[in-house]
């Protein structure tokens, strides 16, 4: 039971008495050596959370639940949308498999601080590999399973892994794609040589193992099990490369202690979950949401985590929610658009156990959220995230008794505890500008950036004063502390000196029932500096398809003609990143 009745009570407690707030939050974690201090400035100017404390994240995510009698409860429920396979792994099974695999890693010489690169789609084995690293203090680096050789080689040289763990194949739709050719190409290109490769064989496409170099994942699980190693709170748990939507891909380093505390608190405070509840994220485990809410947060909190391989259809999501009594569903706007498209042929969902749905990752237009509310008949809320922060910067707080103002539901919510946003605008009377966060950031956020084989203070994210973390997102903050998001700084369009966010225009166009998705970008304009161009994808089965003039008139009616939208380009698809986000920059070169 959380001690606060209202959002302001909770937020102000973290603001005014941060040491006390975070030391109390830390009681959700089983420590070997409990923390006596919350935050400490490091020699390099960045911050460590719970500096004197020791723990093991894997112990908190797995062993302690078995010791508490949850050994028979499902820890992971995995479904492959490609092969239609299922697997349920109880906490007891998970401990056995993780401890065995960790023993196998140790036998290969992997120890504390060694990096282990994991190139796997969302599989039970991916989670086992991550947790096994955490168990022995190795630092996991999960990369997208679909990277081609050169991209994989770059990651290998960046982190210098002692061991690489890879699946024999991943899937594109129903088609199996062997992964070893990319691995072989990457190893031929990379300067770094790993000591061994571990292959998780899949029935659809087993790989021929290379003698001496390769080991079988499922054989290694039977190695002599090892106990969790005690680590300092500030020892690194993992490195995760940013998607590149926030500049060049950077290796974000996450610690053990701050991460565990922030995630455990968020499960109660934001998602309203308690041990035994079922949490379902549609995110690939290779992205930050998959790390945080596919693996660590639900497991640290003793929940059951539902994970899926491949793009789940609306009917698959419904079935999974229904069959596993999912309480919270966490998905993306892109996934939701796909569900909306497919749901035209389905009746409204009846899912009694489902309490609420969360979206994050990119702009979600209100029309889409309204559709989801009508379809699922549940609260649907948006919250704001970055790979760097590891959990949501702003959110809605379902663990608090205070009822959320409905006016906020379409927005990204109010700051989570410890996040202190401010706006940096070019004119003092301008309410919009770049959103920056006062330092220190709360626990769970980046502990540094990985570069040249070491952890560095993330100076590239600091403003000129060195006191603020730059999010590179634009927005405004209102009197209720709610943050309103306008998009990435480089997506803001300046028309004759006035700022308009592409998102504001997209919101209006997306409200047309025939529009499936749209993206607005700026192009140079000789007279006004910049002007917007809209790229629009139509629903395939809609009768009334609007003309460009009709969509432009809709925008002018709401925002005014000054916006200068003159061009609508109808396209069949929008370019998206491998994590499913629209890449507006690529539209500019197309
Ligand atoms: P990534 O680190 O790749 O997950 O990207 C983080 C970026 O995604 C943020 O800086 C935002 O630009 C965007 N983003 C995340 N969540 C939201 C949201 N709820 N609404 C709008 N944009 C979002």
TrEMBL record:
Lineage of source species: Bacteria, Pseudomonadati, Pseudomonadota, Alphaproteobacteria, Acetobacterales
Coiled-coil regions listed: none
Keywords assigned by UniProt, alphabetized: Ligase
Family: Belongs to the ATP-dependent AMP-binding enzyme family.
Domain Acetyl-coenzyme A synthetase N-terminal, chain residue ranges per copy: 7-61
PANTHER family (alphabetical): ACYL-COA SYNTHETASE, ACYL-COA SYNTHETASE SHORT-CHAIN FAMILY MEMBER 3, MITOCHONDRIAL
Top EC class for this record: ligase
Its EC number(s): 6.2.1.17
Start and end residues of each AMP-dependent synthetase/ligase domain: 70-438
Pfam family, one: AMP-binding_C
Gene Ontology molecular function: any one: propionate-CoA ligase activity
PROSITE patterns in the record: AMP_BINDING (PS00455)
Protein name: AMP-binding protein
Domain AMP-binding enzyme C-terminal positions: 504-581
Protein origin, superkingdom: Bacteria
Gene3D superfamilies assigned to the protein according to its UniProt record, in alphabetical order: 3.30.300.30, N-terminal domain of ligase-like (3.40.50.12780)
Source organism of the structure: Acetobacter ghanensis
InterPro entries for this protein: ACAS_N (IPR032387), AMP-bd_C (IPR025110), AMP-bd_C_sf (IPR045851), AMP-binding_CS (IPR020845), AMP-dep_synth/lig_dom (IPR000873), ANL_N_sf (IPR042099)
């Amino acid at each position: 039971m959380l001690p606060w009745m209202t959002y302001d009570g909770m937020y102000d407690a973290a603001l005014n008495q941060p040491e006390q707030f975070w030391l109390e939050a830390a009681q959700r974690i089983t420590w070997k050596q409990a923390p006596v201090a919350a935050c400490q400035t490091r020699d390099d100017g960045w911050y460590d959370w719970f500096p004197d404390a020791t723990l093991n994240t894997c112990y908190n995510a797995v062993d302690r639940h078995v010791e508490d009698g949850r050994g028979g409860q499902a820890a992971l429920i995995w479904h492959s949308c490609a092969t239609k396979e299922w697997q349920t792994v109880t906490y007891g099974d998970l401990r056995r498999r993780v401890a065995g695999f960790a023993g196998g890693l140790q036998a290969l010489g992997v120890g504390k601080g060694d990096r282990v690169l994991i190139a796997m789609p969302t599989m039970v084995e991916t989670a086992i590999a991550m947790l096994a690293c955490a168990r022995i203090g190795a630092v996991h680096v999960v990369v997208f399973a679909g990277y081609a050789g050169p991209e994989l080689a770059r990651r290998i040289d960046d982190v210098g892994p002692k061991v690489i763990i890879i699946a024999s194949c991943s899937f594109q739709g129903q088609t199996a794609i062997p992964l070893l050719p990319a691995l072989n190409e990457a190893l031929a290109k990379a300067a770094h040589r790993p000591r061994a490769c571990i292959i998780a064989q899949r029935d659809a496409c087993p790989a021929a193992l290379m003698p001496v170099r390769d080991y079988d994942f499922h054989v290694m699980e039977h190695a002599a099990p090892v106990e969790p190693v005690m680590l300092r709170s500030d020892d690194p748990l993992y490195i995760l490369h940013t998607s590149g939507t926030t500049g060049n891909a950077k290796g974000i380093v996450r610690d053990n202690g701050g991460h565990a505390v922030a995630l455990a608190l968020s499960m109660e405070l934001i998602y309203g979950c308690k041990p035994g509840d079922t949490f379902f994220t549609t995110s690939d485990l290779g992205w930050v949401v998959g790390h945080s809410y596919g693996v660590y947060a639900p497991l640290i909190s003793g929940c059951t985590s539902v994970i899926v391989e491949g793009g789940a259809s609306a009917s698959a999501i419904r079935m999974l929610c229904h069959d596993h009594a999912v309480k919270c569903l966490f998905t993306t706007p892109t996934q939701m658009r796909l569900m909306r498209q497919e749901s035209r042929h389905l009746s409204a969902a009846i899912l009694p156990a489902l309490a609420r749905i969360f979206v994050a990752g990119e702009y979600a237009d209100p029309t889409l959220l309204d559709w989801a509310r009508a379809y699922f008949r549940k609260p649907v809320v948006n919250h704001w995230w970055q790979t760097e922060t590891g959990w949501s910067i702003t959110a809605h707080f379902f663990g608090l008794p205070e009822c959320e103002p409905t006016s906020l539901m379409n927005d990204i919510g109010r700051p989570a505890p410890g996040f202190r946003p401010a706006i940096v605008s070019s004119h003092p009377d301008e309410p919009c500008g770049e959103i920056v966060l006062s330092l220190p950031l709360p626990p769970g956020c980046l502990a540094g950036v990985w570069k040249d084989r070491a952890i560095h203070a993330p100076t590239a994210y600091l403003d000129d004063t060195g006191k603020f973390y730059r999010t590179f997102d634009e927005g405004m903050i209102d009197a209720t502390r709610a943050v309103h998001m306008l998009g990435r700084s480089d997506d803001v369009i300046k028309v004759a000196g006035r700022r308009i966010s592409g998102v504001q225009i997209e919101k209006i166009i997306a409200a047309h029932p025939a529009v499936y998705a749209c993206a607005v970008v700026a192009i140079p304009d000789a007279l006004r500096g910049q002007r917007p161009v809209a790229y629009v994808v139509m629903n395939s089965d809609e009768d009334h398809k609007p003309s460009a003039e009709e969509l432009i008139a809709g925008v002018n009616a709401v925002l005014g003609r000054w916006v200068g939208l003159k061009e609508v380009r109808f396209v069949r698809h929008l370019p998206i990143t491998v994590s499913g986000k629209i890449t507006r920059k690529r539209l500019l070169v197309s």
